[in-house]
Amino acid sequence: MPKSRHDGLPINGEGGPDAKRRGRVGIRTCVACRQEAGKGALIRLVRGPDGSTAVDPTGHAPGRGAYLHRNQECIEIARKRRQLERSLGAAVPSELWSELTA
């Protein structure tokens, strides 16, 4: 039985759908609430080489990435504080915000 971490973060391949191997799990920080979570629990948004911003469902698209929790509270905080724009260094179109809230 794997040991549990004191901070509740995933261990030993428990990172969600993106964790394909046992051992270390990719821990990322939400740009809105600044809490850490496994890669599988967050949405990755990416600024591509052409400067466009999009959701990256695979987590492997080239470009600068930012992570956000899937809940509405974090999405609203990121929108109000313009956290995604700041993290990605690019404008986030309104169509992307509607896609995240849907």
Summary tags:
102 residues, alpha+beta, Hypothetical Cytosolic Protein, Chain: A, three-stranded antiparallel sheet, two-stranded antiparallel ribbon, 5 strands, 21% strand
Short description:
It is built from three helices and five strands, in the order βββββααα.
- Succession of helices and strands: EEEEEHHH
Strand order of the largest sheet: 4-3-5
Q: Give the biggest beta sheet.
A: 3 strands, antiparallel
What is the CATH level 1 assignment? Alpha Beta
Helix content: 10-25%
- Overall 3D geometry? globular
Classify the beta-strand content into a percent band.
Answer: 15-25%
Tell me how many strands there are: 5
Structure description:
The protein has a single domain (1-91), classed as YlxR-like (Hypothetical Cytosolic Protein, Chain: A). A hairpin with a 6-residue loop joins strand 1 and strand 2. 22% of the residues are buried. It has helices at 72-81, 83-88, 94-101; strands at residues 27-29, 36-38, 42-47, 53-55, 64-69. It has three helices and five strands. By secondary structure, the protein is α+β, with helices and mostly antiparallel strands. The strands form two sheets. A three-stranded antiparallel sheet has the order 4-3-5. Strands 1-2 form a two-stranded antiparallel sheet. It starts with 26 loop residues before the first strand and ends with a helix. The longest helix has 10 residues, at 72-81.
